[in-house]
Amino acid sequence: KNEQDSDKATAPTGGLFARLKSGLSKTSNTLTAGLVGRKKIDDELLEDLETQLLMADVGVDATDRIIRQLTARVKRNELADGDALYHALAELMTDSLSRSDVPLIIPESDDPFVILVVGINGAGKTTSIGKLAKHLQTAGYSVMLAAGDTFRAAAVEQLQTWGERNHVPVISQGSGADSASVIFDALQSAKARNIDVLIADTAGRLHTQDHLMSELQKVKRVMGKLDANAPHETLLVVDGGTGQNALKQAEAFHASMNLTGLAVTKLDGTAKARYARRMITLKHLGKSYAGGHDALLDINLHIGRGELTFLTGHSGAGKSSLLRMLALIDRPTRGSMKVNGHEISRLPNSAIPAYRRSLGIIFQDHRLLSDRTIFDNIALPLQISGQPQELIQRRVRASLDKVGLLSKENEFPAALSSGQQQRIGIARAIINKPAILLADEPTGNLDPDLSREIMNLFVQFNQVGVTVLIASHDHHLIESFDHRIIELSNGQIVGEH
């Protein structure tokens, strides 16, 4: 490589690691809120801290180690009060991180340095690859990307967007191509073009699926035909909000791929809010009907403020039943159901209308009134609540504009296509500016192109902070979006990725 670039053997990591610590500091504020200002350190305070650490999903072993070390320092009279305990806790947690702060070293070589990126859907692989590419460019390296996630429909396009943004070449073969073949071609191209670093994306395969792990091993074998040492780094990307499940992911991926690095994402974003700021919390939720039929069985689920989540499963799996519970169209037989911190399962009937004004509900069959104009259909919730006409007109037109149908306000539902009617249903659902959108099979009767348009609308609402929960049986469609997927079967949660 160029002699003037000889000082680039170590990619600077201080900025990235500083942001990691910054993200964790926000969690630390939650953990230690009860420490600062406490004059006395006693057993009760240490027990409270232990509980907070466990609730934050620090883990049993790590929590036990931290508490034992802090207790030993208290007994040696090294810590006088809550403030001292706070700083000692910060030191222990920072020290644990610092031991993992190993720089990414890219040695001088005539061959490309290959980084293989693995992880489940929704962890943030594509975004991490884009940021890593930019980081390495800034350090003086030439970079190429390999679009090896050929399973998720939008993955190739997303990586190409990152490539265009950073002026980095992207090697791809389109959706459905053989991942190993794509990465093999990319490595050949990187060698021919004298590229410093090749970063290869892979499918967001679940760590519990052995046959998909075998696909990853195939990628590694195929790369070995061109470079016996490739990949030189195998990086696992995990969502910082998944807690202890991240350890299970790491163990499974390491057993198959011999991991060399870990990227923890979303520590300071909405994913962490799934734990610190829960919008929906279901605990041991169940619903039984007459005759002994169980529609829902022991549902435990947390959905964060501003999170978009898909519910999927076979017909009768419990998707619609779960949405009906949250909308209080039906009531659970047992368990707890909290929305925005409030228990709603026992909400009195008189309070249900006020609660539903915080929701937007979208049905598969639209449920539009055929004898009313589009404007009147959307305005109905505001008219029922007695809102002034000026506000109604402003909000209705704003809602229509958001779904791209402002010109249809004087039409009747029968004059609209099925896709347009579904958009009207969405416009009606957002008229009250709800904090939560619940959608039951919103694309069930639409063709693939219209289905994607409708789903993109939900993504747009989610991007401005709305919590979105969508029930859909269209696996191919929802897998193409980089969001959390909860799978139901026979009334139970059987999977998540």
UniProtKB/TrEMBL annotation:
<dbReference type="Pfam" id="PF02881">
    <property type="entry name" value="SRP54_N"/>
</dbReference>
<dbReference type="Pfam" id="PF00005">
    <property type="entry name" value="ABC_tran"/>
</dbReference>
<keyword id="KW-1003">Cell membrane</keyword>
<dbReference type="InterPro" id="IPR042101">
    <property type="entry name" value="SRP54_N_sf"/>
</dbReference>
<keyword id="KW-0547">Nucleotide-binding</keyword>
<dbReference type="GO" id="GO:0005737">
    <property type="term" value="C:cytoplasm"/>
</dbReference>
<dbReference type="GO" id="GO:0006614">
    <property type="term" value="P:SRP-dependent cotranslational protein targeting to membrane"/>
</dbReference>
<dbReference type="InterPro" id="IPR003593">
    <property type="entry name" value="AAA+_ATPase"/>
</dbReference>
<dbReference type="GO" id="GO:0016887">
    <property type="term" value="F:ATP hydrolysis activity"/>
</dbReference>
<dbReference type="Pfam" id="PF00448">
    <property type="entry name" value="SRP54"/>
</dbReference>
<keyword id="KW-0675">Receptor</keyword>
<keyword id="KW-0067">ATP-binding</keyword>
<dbReference type="InterPro" id="IPR004390">
    <property type="entry name" value="SR_rcpt_FtsY"/>
</dbReference>
<protein>
    <recommendedName>
        <fullName>Cell division ATP-binding protein FtsE</fullName>
    </recommendedName>
</protein>
<dbReference type="GO" id="GO:0005525">
    <property type="term" value="F:GTP binding"/>
</dbReference>
<dbReference type="InterPro" id="IPR003439">
    <property type="entry name" value="ABC_transporter-like_ATP-bd"/>
</dbReference>
<dbReference type="InterPro" id="IPR036225">
    <property type="entry name" value="SRP/SRP_N"/>
</dbReference>
<dbReference type="GO" id="GO:0003924">
    <property type="term" value="F:GTPase activity"/>
</dbReference>
<dbReference type="GO" id="GO:0005047">
    <property type="term" value="F:signal recognition particle binding"/>
</dbReference>
<keyword id="KW-0963">Cytoplasm</keyword>
<dbReference type="InterPro" id="IPR017871">
    <property type="entry name" value="ABC_transporter-like_CS"/>
</dbReference>
<dbReference type="InterPro" id="IPR000897">
    <property type="entry name" value="SRP54_GTPase_dom"/>
</dbReference>
<dbReference type="InterPro" id="IPR013822">
    <property type="entry name" value="Signal_recog_particl_SRP54_hlx"/>
</dbReference>
<dbReference type="GO" id="GO:0051301">
    <property type="term" value="P:cell division"/>
</dbReference>
<keyword id="KW-0472">Membrane</keyword>
<dbReference type="InterPro" id="IPR027417">
    <property type="entry name" value="P-loop_NTPase"/>
</dbReference>
<comment type="similarity">
    <text>Belongs to the GTP-binding SRP family.</text>
</comment>
<keyword id="KW-0342">GTP-binding</keyword>
<dbReference type="InterPro" id="IPR005286">
    <property type="entry name" value="Cell_div_FtsE"/>
</dbReference>
<dbReference type="GO" id="GO:0005524">
    <property type="term" value="F:ATP binding"/>
</dbReference>
<comment type="similarity">
    <text>Belongs to the ABC transporter superfamily.</text>
</comment>
<dbReference type="GO" id="GO:0005886">
    <property type="term" value="C:plasma membrane"/>
</dbReference>
<keyword id="KW-0378">Hydrolase</keyword>
